[in-house]
Specification:
Elements lengths: L11 H12 L9 H14 L16 H11 L7 E2 H7 L6 H9 L12 E2 L12 H12 L18
Parallel strand pairs: 1-2
Helix pairs in contact: 4-5
């Protein structure tokens, strides 16, 4: 699988342009074993499964982006990390903004959990599927109501 993204997301065209750049292929609506596995995984996720994806993801991006996306897969279900902490883990402690851009370019929303990345002040930052979806996903993982999330709202549209 090379992409699983929000069709109406604010960054969808960026994701699709990168896909075209790296593959020179066009997107075709169809199904396959990996798409069915991803669909099954998403069903299980929304039923409360904490298991990581068990199907192949092909990361198309720079080495830095791929490193950040791989680190996103290591964030445990129900936990969050800040952009700065993620930059530290990527070996680039002064590159929190660059990490934020890479997080925002994640082509696998939900599957590669960029929704688990928050601001250093524990604020919720933007999300390709929309701010409300990010809140919903975090509430789902924390088994709480959106109103009870332990984060502050951030009205700026930033990556993440």
């Amino acid at each position: 699988m090379v992409v699983a993204d929000w069709i109406d997301g604010w960054h969808h065209s960026t994701i699709m342009n990168r896909l075209q750049k790296y593959t020179k292929a066009s997107v075709v609506k169809s199904t396959s074993k990996v798409i069915e596995a991803a669909s099954d995984w998403l069903d299980a996720y929304f039923e409360g499964s904490k298991e990581p994806p068990d199907f192949d993801l092909l990361f198309l991006g720079t080495d830095f982006q791929k490193r950040v996306w791989q680190l996103l897969l290591e964030i445990p279900y129900g936990e969050t990390i800040t952009y700065g902490e993620l930059a530290q883990e990527a070996g680039t402690p002064k590159a929190a903004r660059a990490v934020g851009v890479a997080v925002g370019d994640n082509p696998f929303s939900i599957i590669v959990p960029c929704h688990r990345v928050i601001g250093k002040d524990k604020s919720l930052t933007g999300y390709g599927g929309g701010f409300d979806v990010k809140k919903y996903l975090l509430a789902h993982e924390l088994s709480t109501d959106i109103e009870n999330l332990p984060f502050s709202d951030c009205s700026r549209r930033t990556v993440g």
